[in-house]
Amino acid sequence: MSEERIIKYAEAVLAVASAENDGTEVEDELFRFARAVEGSDDLRLTLSDAKIPAARRQQIVEDLIGDQATSTTTALISMLVAAGRGGDIQRIADQVVELGAASRAKAVAEVYSVIELTDDQQIRLASSLKSATGKDVEIKVIIDETVMGGLLVQIEDEVIDGTVRTRLKQLREAF
Amino acid sequence: MKKRLFIASVAGALLLTFGMAGSASASGETLEGCLLEDLIEKLEERGHLDGGHSGLDDEELLKEIKKKCIEAPSPILPEVNEIIWGGGAFLVLLALMLWKGFPAVKKIMDERSEKIASDLDQADQAKVDARAVKTQYEAELADAKSEASRIIEEARQQAESLRADLQVRAETDIAEMRTQASVDLEAARERAMGDLQAEVADIVVGAAERVVEANLDAEAQTRLIENYINQIGSE
Questions:
Q1: What is the rounded (10 degree) CA torsion for B220, A34, A138, A130?
Q2: Is B121 at the interface with chain A, CB within 8 A?
Q3: What CA–CA distance (Å, rounded) separates A87 from A43?
Q4: DSSP string computed for B18-80
Q5: What torsion, rounded to 10 degrees, do the Cα atoms B110, B115, B119, B125 define?
Q6: By the CB < 8 Å criterion, does A79 face chain B?
Q7: CA neighbours within 13 Å on the CB side: how many for B170?
Q8: How far is B192 from chain A (nearest CA, A)?
Q9: Model pTM?
């Protein structure tokens, strides 16, 4: 799907989220669902398989999300899957997060970590990143066990890597 | 030349004259014939035959007959008739010789002289030609020797140049082979060192990863996150 169409879908999702409730929560839930799809090839193929009836794919989404997300988020994801955009959920979610943050004059900071960050840690990390980059950021935590430990933060094209994986890689290269 | 030719002609005429005269007297008259013929002739001249006189008492007659038939002729002076006939024959022969013989002989001699002169000229010309050919041959031989020397020298120089080129090429090849061998050896050494370092790194890093994984519990993870936040904030 073209980037322009991705943006239009993202804008539509944002409009619905803003109309229904706090858009930030929908953005966060959509972002997490996208990361879950990203980590599962089977789920991604299932949601993008046109041979599977749309109702069946929507049912899969609803069963998968359950009560872990707001009804608005579930409805929006179900709508995207029914529209045949199940394979583009990741790009649409990323675009929704970016557009939402931009509407609040902030940048998205994707934080890769083995464990979830507490709210206090996210606030202090956002503060530290602002002092380091000069940008107001919204923290989006992505659980990734491959980092082994520490954090990897990506803000737009800038990457700040403090993971154990990279330390070990540097150690390997030092030999 | 002319004087010699004239003397030879006269001598030939005299020999022919007296030879012919001598041979006629000796062949045609025996002693008996001479006596009988001369006696009859003298007796008729003096009329003894007509008178029945024998004439044998005529001493003068006998002396003449004796003088003519018995006494030998003069070894120096021939008979008059022989001189006449001989002289005539000589003159006839001399005239014939002067008329036909001498010009013919002269013509032959001239032709012979001309032929000899021509042969001499041809010989001289042949000699000159031979000398020219010899000179030409000698020059060509010298040129050939010079050309041969030049070719030999050129071949020697080419051989020397080729030898030098081959030597330089061989030395260059050897140097390149040595350089390549050194490069290959260094590359092999670096590959071996790289492989060894990679293996050592795998072992060391693998061990480190196992140690880290074993010690990265929730508390350690939290500590790493806090360190990261504090480090970013202090920069």
A1: 60
A2: no
A3: 10
A4: HHHHHHHHHHH--HHHHHHHHHHHHHHHHTTTTTT---TT-HHHHHHHIIIIISPPPSSS--H
A5: 80
A6: no
A7: 6
A8: 14
A9: 0.50
Output the pLDDT for position A64: 86
Q: What is the pLDDT of residue B234?
A: 78
CA distance A68 to A64: 9
Please state the rounded mean pLDDT for residues B4-8.
Answer: 55
CA distances from B60 to B22, B46, B55, B72, B177 (A): 27, 11, 10, 18, 151
Give the per-residue pLDDT at A22.
67
Rounded CA gap, A108 and B198, in Å?
38
A149–B231: do the CB atoms touch at under 8 Å?
no
Which residues in chain A have Cβ-Cβ distances shorter than 8 Å to B235? Answer: 131-132
A chain contacts of residue B190, beta-carbon cutoff 8 Å: none
Token pair for residue B188? 């092999």
pLDDT band at B75; cut points 50, 70, 90: confident
Residue A157 DSSP code:
T
| Locus of tokens 């709210």 | A119
pLDDT, tens digit (0-9, with 9 covering 90-100), for A51-101: 888 889 888 888 888 888 888 899 899 899 888 888 888 999 999 999 988
Helical axes A3-20 vs A71-82, angle rounded to 10°: 150
> Which residues of chain B have a CB within 8 Å of the CB of A128?
229-230, 232-233
Chain A interface includes B198 (CB < 8 A): yes
B216 and A164 within 8 Å at the Cβ level: the answer is yes
Question: Quick one: which H or E segment has residue A11?
Answer: helix A3-20
C-alpha angle with apex A110: A109 to A112, nearest 5 degrees? 135
pLDDT digits (tens, 9 = 90+) for B130-147: 889 888 889 989 999 999
Contacts of B229 in chain A (CB under 8 A): 121, 124-125, 128, 151
Cα–Cα distance for residue pair A150/A141, rounded to 1 Å: 13
The alpha carbon of residue B221 is apart from the nearest alpha carbon of chain A, in Å, by 6
Tell me the sheet residues that pair with A141.
A111
Contacts of B225 (CB under 8 A, 6+ apart): A113, A115, A117, A121, A150, A151
- CB < 8 Å to B224, chain A: 149-151, 162, 164
Most B-contacting residue of A113, A127, A128 (CB-CB within 10 A), to test interface: A128
Q: Which residues of B touch A125 (CB under 8 A)?
A: 228-229, 232
